[in-house]
Amino acid sequence: MKSTYYLLPVVDLWKVRETSEYRVVYDTRGRQSEHAKHWRDGEILDERAYFRTITEPATLSIDNISERDEGDYRCRIDYLKSPTKNSLVRLTVIVPPQKPTIFDDNGKEVPSIAGPYVEDGEMKLTCMVSGGRPEPSVRWWRNGTLIDSTDRTTSYKNVRTNELLVRNLQREDQHAVYTCQASNNNISQPVSASVTIEIYFKPISVEILSSNQPFSADRSYEIPCQSVGSRPPAQISWWMDGKQLSNHSQQNSADGNVSTSTLTLMPTRSDNDKSLTCRAENTHVHGGVEEATLRLNVFFIPTLELQLGKSLNPDDIEEGDDVYFGCEIKANPQAYKVLWKHNGQVIQHNQKAGVIVSNRDLALQNVGRNQAGNYTCVASNVEGDGISNTVNLKIMFKPICRSDQKRIYGVARHEQAQVLCEVESFPPPESFKWSFNNTAETIDVPQIRFKSTSVLSMSTLQYTPVTEMDYGTVMCWANNLAGRQIEPCVFHIIAAGKPDPPFNCTLANQSTESLQIECIEGFNGGQQQSFMVEVFDQQNDILQANITGSNIPIFTVNGLGAGKILKILVYAVNSKGRSEPVLLEGFTLKIAEKQTGSPTEFTPMLSVLIGIMTACLFVTVIIVGALRMKGRRQPPHQPSVMPLKQKPPISLPLHSESEELKDDKNPDVIPANKDSDYQLTSATQTPGERTYSVHSDDLHTLQGTPIPTIEPVVFQNGIPRDQKIISPIVGNEVTYAELCLGRPLTESAARKDDTTIYAQIDHNRRPPPPPVGVYHHREVVTVRTPLMGCQQESCV
Known about the structure:
Layout: E1 5-6, E2 17-18, E3 23-27, E4 37-41, E5 49-52, E6 59-62, E7 71-77, E8 85-91, E9 101-103, E10 113-118, E11 123-130, E12 137-142, E13 145-147, E14 151-153, E15 159-166, E16 177-183, E17 191-200, E18 205-208, E19 215-216, E20 221-228, E21 235-240, E22 243-245, E23 248-252, E24 258-265, E25 275-281, E26 289-295, E27 298-308, E28 323-332, E29 337-342, E30 345-346, E31 355-357, E32 361-364, E33 373-381, E34 384-387, E35 391-393, E36 397-401, E37 408-411, E38 417-426, E39 431-437, E40 442-444, E41 450-453, E42 458-463, E43 472-480, E44 483-484, E45 489-495, E46 503-508, E47 515-520, E48 530-537, E49 542-550, E50 554-557, E51 565-574, E52 577-578, E53 582-587, H1 604-631, E54 669-670, E55 677-682, E56 692-695, E57 713-716, E58 719-720, E59 724-725, E60 729-730, E61 733-734, E62 736-740, E63 756-760, E64 780-783
Parallel strand pairs: 10-17, 19-27, 37-45, 55-64
Antiparallel strand pairs: 1-6, 2-3, 3-4, 5-6, 7-8, 9-11, 11-15, 12-13, 12-16, 14-15, 16-17, 18-20, 20-24, 21-22, 21-25, 23-24, 25-26, 27-28, 28-32, 29-30, 29-33, 31-32, 33-34, 33-35, 36-38, 38-42, 39-40, 39-43, 41-42, 43-44, 43-45, 46-47, 47-50, 48-49, 48-51, 51-52, 51-53, 54-57, 55-56, 57-58, ...
């Protein structure tokens, strides 16, 4: 430090400094003061020392004073006429210390920032100061506040240190400024050095910012997690049951105090009830880990596993056994509805029928073959419907005949027929047996005559009739593991012939240019049949339309022209020829004529005529009504009848499958005999046929008059040709019958009276017994079955 010091003498005279080393003399003898001589002895002061005579008092100035300039200064004044005077002045030179240096606990100099330190840790700083006279004192200050600390000397000369130790660093210590100050006087400013400390903090809190709403399986969600208070910003990671997840991103706030991570999660049903953890970690701080955990509540569609009862052998279930299923359901939330399905149809609880349904179990008591098939269970919750696996229930049952197979084979002599026998069974049949039956005998068919295929559950018999006795009935039995077929499959071998004509033909949808024909097909003659129709103009007998090759007797004929009267012929055709035609009469509608001319004006005369006609019409209606009321009265002895509006429209099944076998050359006939009972029966022994009897004594018309003589009724396939019989059946008995006589083809042949006769049948009433010795004639009409050997079309 460069300074100038002034030595003031006691008296106002010239000053001289003299030491043992050098001496400075300022001589003014015999001269004026401006010509005084300044000289020095030695080079120590050099040019730094000089006198000032201008000022009062005069001073000795020393520039750039140093430590070695310290000492005693003597001022001697010599007078010409007076004694010499001397005075001593003590010069003390203060040397300030050098700028402090701060070191960390590793001995590394800290320039301006100390650390980083960790939260709850300690900080140790050492301030070192060298030089200074007198020895300086070293102190620590924090943000302008003196810290109680003690300095000490070191083994090094003129070096002093002060060690600062701060324990349990907290967040308020972040960026605190610590200053080391050295001072040895009150004149000059103390020297100092400052550092700012940096501290790393662990996260204060971690939170998953998600509501408590449940998640749906297999849907994507974004779940945020926020960490606060970490310095530097925490690294956020996601974990699920110890497995780290990777599909997330992180953002930090500008000051680094808040960190937010967003996880993209698509939970599955297996993630339900798992723990999702958000972990915020500051790796610079020991123990700087904070976690937040979320228990996943994942909603998912129910998953079901259907199993057959553990005690059941799925390959050994027979008819009559008890079967039960178990449905294991995993669902969140719990299923509110459980359904059981058999072949896609919902199973209803019916304990009387042996079907017991619960949410998780299904019991089938005394199972039948119709209960075999695929079983599933369906459970529903708010997420949707879950379907179980399919369990196929196999029920062993004896073979039975397929219902939709061909039963009648029309074969010519020396023609080979392929009779196909198909059965339903489980397991598939192991063997088949065939038998032939005619009127003379029953013969077992040798195995070489037929070929069986157990995989397809069928057997084929190759049969060739040679004589008339070779026509009859063949029967087929199958055997499987469950046993032998109880009821055989029955096939009829008949002589092939032409088909019967269709019946019950009606016209519908008649328009100006088209009409529709609908019939019921008749017996096909043992061969596959088709149908054809021919439409003629009745006036000129010109063919208008011809439709062939239809598999069903339903035709739509177009392009006929308006206002025509038509003759329609319907045929059935097979390989043996064409049937007799069914003749129908029809017409097409006329085109409406345009009305032209002026409107009719009502004159007084016209009004009178209209009034007279109205009165006559009214009187006629009254007379007709009275006559009808009189005709409806019944004799007291006649049973009551069902009114026309209340007759039930139920058809009476008068024929069975075997009754379709008829030779159109000899149709069945019901003789016109009022005294006999009409009975329809079958000569075959095929199970399931029904026989109905109608007693003519019990038939009465609604008008109370006796039944007129009925013409012979021709039966075709068990139904009277061109007639209808409609009767309800109660307890397998006929309680009501409707006989509809055939309508003539032309209007001239039409009867004036009603062709429909209604009768009430009393089953409890029987005709009186015939007199002794008198034979009561009773005609029995049967439908011909050619295979059973009856040579007559009807047996009386």
